[in-house]
Hints:
By secondary structure, chain A is of the alpha+beta class.
Amino acid sequence: MKTTVSATINGVAQTFEVEPRTSLADVLREQMRLTATHLGCEHGVCGACTVLIDGQPARSCIALAVTLDGAAITTLEGLADDPLMQTLKASFHDQHGLQCGFCTPGMLMSGWDLLKRKPDIQGQDIRVAMSGNLCRCTGYQGIVRSIEKAAQTAKGQVSQTKGAAA
Amino acid sequence: MNQTLDGRDRIVRTQGVGASVKRNEDKRLLNGQGEYLGDLQVPGMAEVAFLRSPVAHARIRGIEIPEAHKGSVFLASDIPFAKPIVAVSAAKGFNASDYPALVSDKVRFVGDLIAICIAPTRAEAEDIAQSCIVDFEDLPAVWDIDVATAAGAPKVHDHWADNVYVETRIETGDIAAVRAKAEVTVKRNLRMGRHAGVSLEGRGVLAHFNRRLDELTVYSSTQFPHVIRTIMATCLGVSEAKLRVIAPDVGGGFGPKNNFHPEELAVAALSMKLNRPLRWIEDRREHLIASPHAREHRYELTAYADSKGKILGLEAVVVVDAGAYSVWPWTAAMEAGMSAGIMTGPYDIPVYHARAISVATNKSPLGPYRGVGRSGACFAIETLVDAVAREVKREPADVRIENMVPLEAMPYRSATHKYYDSGDYPTCAQMARDAVDLPGIRARQAKPSPDGKLIGFGMASYTEQSAHGTAEWVARGLPVVFGYEPALARFTPDGKLILFVGIQNHGQGLETTLAQVAHEELGIPVADVIVRHGDSSVSPYGMGTFASRSMTMAGGAVSIACGQLAEKILRIGAHLLQAPKDAVTLRDGKVFFGQQSVSFAQIGEAAFLHPERLPEGEEPALEANAVYQPGRSTGAFSYATHACVVTVDPGTGHVEILDYVVCHDCGTMVNPMIVEAQVVGGVAQGLGTALYEEIPYDDNGQPLASTFLDYMIPGATEVPDVRVLHMETPSPHTRFGIKGMGEGGAIAPPAVIINAINDALKPLGAEIGETPATPDRILDAILAVKPAGAAA
């Protein structure tokens, strides 16, 4: 039995057919071919599948698509032009915040959300805030440094903008 | 103008060997444009779910497939042409066994493959698998080493005499004489738990037939596609020329993707039979119960020492639970053999007798995992060294350093017949010790802490064989001898360089570091170099990425090939500039004669499109093939000392890491940024082995950890900021003096953590000798020495 769901995905209105058990991740990956969203555990622990549902970070592997009629969903692809995400990606490159790249989209989504909420976050607080995203390659050091650096850079950008406005 | 490492005058190394160049591969991965196995789709593709055994040990009496699903479920009898995988060590007395794509007679572990179910979606395929009914005749589960080796034990493989794959021995020196003269004898029984590799991306296979090329294409999330092609062709009964194996972006390997898996064979065989694209993506539960597992070692060790703690001789019995099948190509003998074979580590222990026993049980087969064998050996010897130090009442750091192979003894032949090529082990250990301020820790320990927590200092050292060549692999008796690595360096007519290599990059940064080697030889910008790997039809035949080998081996091959191209480019450039060849130089993608220059694009154009512009006698085209073997095939030995400070809460058994330092030496570092990150990532995995990760089995042979809720890998809050100190002693036997280092970080953490915990527990007289050191185990150790009647 399939149900029709309408949702906005990365700003575009989409309609898709799902079974009651179909996860959002499977809709994104298999139907929409948005494969930046990765599946590392499919039971809501590793965080590789993190996307934004109505602006809140969520595990797309345990979000049932059928419940998302009318929702706005944003994946890593949808933030390609976002200045903070670009800053974050540049920091991950600069601070060697990724190795195999599999956890990376989830790290970027969670990191982006974190910096939106807590632009001044540093060190151990980043570790605590990011503890819902697992990485097997980096030992997290590069990821923590990347987010720290992005926080500094983003702050500089904001103050520059403010300076320009003044 | 700088000198290159081998003394030749050449180019300024802004991006070459030794520079922390940012990675070429980052861009696609950061943009979510990596292509992992699960991202691939082929038109007409069906999804695979395996029907796996839910029981550990049973005969299959029958399999009932619902009428509605006949045609979607396939058994061993449907792919009779698929030959079983047979991995036999050349070690004398090795018991051979078949590892079939699908079992038909009996199942040997929870997760064993019984049938392939296909459907348009994975969910539907899983529904079909659940609808099948298997009639099992239960057999007693061989769920533990002690069960397997008991008299009259049920047999995992019916045609064997017992449950032992093989027992090997090393006997160096006169152990009886050492026993007689030792002033101190210290024995320890130790255990390292069984766990999984846990790449964040699981395994996966996609097979489809390419009609035009008359070729089966198999995508697999593997670390060694060329070698997979070889064994897969054998098992499928086809020519390697009709088989293409591609590793797309691979989301972490760490060893479990370095075997030929029955899943790979089953999917390929059925795709061939049905002439239909099939895709299997391992889920996390499958990974935890049925991917080749890691570790599960037991040790009985005896050190014979003098009254100062100088170890005169060592006896070791290494018993490894190798699980139900022998994995290809490593065989079931690998873990125990490698552990016993490196047991003396960085220590000058002249007399050594060891037995290495690999036992078969009804558990997932044991395979390679980062640090293979050596994590266990390091844990064993280092725990023992600390025990010796406690016995002679001396500082463990001092006893450790005094027992090490001194600098002046290098190169050194160990009692395990390893040839340590270079290094200064004592200095490395001293640097790690000094970095954590040992006197400061001892002073803190002398005062009671306000919160009742106990502080402990731990230290552990290892030496790691890397870049093993032909002789070493021959000595191990494996079906494939991984003694070399090729590279094809090919310019395009517009002056860019593509390196085709037989290794596989899954996080190590080889798309960057191999480009750095090309830069070293050619002065070409790293950004102008593309590294192509992971495709058996694209690159020359190579061995893949494992055993800390790729940088040394593929780096050597790229260096030779690019060196040949550099010569040719200089000749062509000199000709185009009308200059003498010895007056021109390579820099920034150009050939210079004074202020004049020609670009690689102009040289590429001449070489490929305008051979009339070439010097007389110069062959057109601009590409070179090379094969590299290290100067000695006994390996280049990296080494390190890890030191850490922990607190142990004697009330809860909880361990907190306060400080963690690694001092290591991997010879010449091609990219220090990447080296450091590999060390830190390895440490994180080793901390998982030390403190968190375990798959226990119950007495029915059921795995008790099969999700991330009951199997814990370290998260960001469990891993400390690791401080890394570098030493660089180039290997005399490899190009640029590189030593492999990918695995090293994961080797020492179990040892260093256990030593730190035991140092903390010392005032209580308690000691732990098992990983993972869970709070329960630590509390048990404390309770074991508490006076009777004392409150828990």
